[in-house]
Write a structure and sequence with these properties.
Number of strands: 15
CATH architecture of the largest domain: Alpha-Beta Barrel
CATH class of the largest domain: Alpha Beta
CATH superfamily of the largest domain: D-amino Acid Aminotransferase, subunit A, domain 2
Shape: globular
Structural class: alpha+beta
Oligomer: single chain
Bound molecules: 4'-deoxy-4'-aminopyridoxal-5'-phosphate
């Protein structure tokens, strides 16, 4: 489709090609910004309220005032999405993101030098179903890089900020080993933590474990998966999980807004289970599909046919 997407930038809806931020914006200069991303399923937005609550928690932690209420942000998000839906194919879906920076730099990096108006952006971006389709046939290889996830003592991983540097470094290390691999960072204690945009779960003897919430971004799909496990009567807990646990797991899967629940095939090159989607992962994927009224696997694998 040829119609150009639009974005919201500080009170205006503009074509994406004209949606720009100033070179003096602190979000650009210093990473002094937060964001959040949800997606549509069958063109319906998913858990917008939960995503906006997480955005407003990130803003509060950063002490950035978006100068609009959560309800106003919600209305603007729906407006931007509706304007962009005509660009989305009937079988496709789209990411929907809000970004809020502290605004323009007035004097160096000094916090006193921030302008008193934040920069607010709302934008949409196509989900790369085709590029990622093979992960649902072959499973996802994950690799633990040398770089560790930011500890809460340094910068809370629970806030979704514009600083993804260690996650990006981690992905570069992982991709150097296997071009399809996703990085799974360890925390400072050597426990499994999270990836660049995803949370991790291990299954052993029918029980699911996921890293503790103090050390990771509280993924909305992580939360959704925990709820589905409860509904399915599958035991699930937050725990310290180490590399030994990963090597000996029956199943591993990752969750994210776009991936939903994606099976992991190898951990540092070692096969997980029998290398295919395990029974617990399969049950959760089916429950996820039921919840969102979309075949979440089929939406990816249709590209492989
Ligand atoms: N961890 C990090 C660092 C992330 O950026 C994301 C993506 N938002 C996630 C986990 C998964 O969160 P969600 O399920 O809300 O997409």
């Amino acid at each position: 489709m040829t119609q150009e997407r639009v974005a919201y930038v500080n009170g205006k809806i503009v074509p994406e090609s004209q949606a720009t931020v100033s070179i003096s914006d602190r979000g650009f200069l210093l990473g002094d910004a937060v964001f959040d991303t949800t997606r549509t399923f069958g063109h319906q937005i998913f858990k917008l309220q939960e995503h906006l609550e997480r955005l407003y928690d990130s803003l509060k932690w950063m002490r950035i005032d978006p100068q609009m209420t959560l309800d106003e942000m919600s209305d603007l998000t729906m407006d931007v999405l509706e304007r962009n839906l005509p660009t989305v194919d009937v079988d496709d879906d789209i990411w929907v993101t809000q970004r809020v920076t502290r605004g323009l730099r007035l004097a160096g990096a000094d916090i006193q030098g921030a302008a008193d108006r934040p920069t607010v952006i709302i934008e949409c971006f196509p989900i790369p179903f085709q590029e990622r389709a093979h992960y649902y046939r072959d499973g996802m290889p994950i690799v633990t890089p040398s770089v560790r996830r930011t500890p809460p003592e340094a910068m809370s991983p629970r806030a979704k900020t514009h600083n993804y540097i260690n996650l990006i470094q981690a992905d570069m290390e992982a991709r150097a080993q296997n071009p399809h691999a996703y990085a799974l960072l360890l925390d400072m204690n050597g426990n499994l933590c999270e990836g660049n945009g995803s949370n991790i779960f291990l299954v052993k003897d029918g029980r699911i474990r996921t890293p503790r919430s103090q050390y990771v971004l509280g993924g909305i799909s992580r939360e959704t998966t925990i709820e589905l496990a409860h509904e399915l009567d599958i035991e699930i807990s937050e725990d310290d999980i180490d590399v030994f646990d990963a090597y000996t797991a029956d199943e591993i899967f990752v969750t994210s807004t776009s991936l939903c629940i994606c099976p992991v095939s190898t951990f540092n090159g070692a096969q997980v289970g029998d290398g295919s989607t395990g029974p617990v992962t399969d049950r959760l994927q089916k429950a996820y599909s039921g919840l969102v009224s979309i075949d979440i696997i089929g939406q990816y694998t249709r590209w492989l046919e």
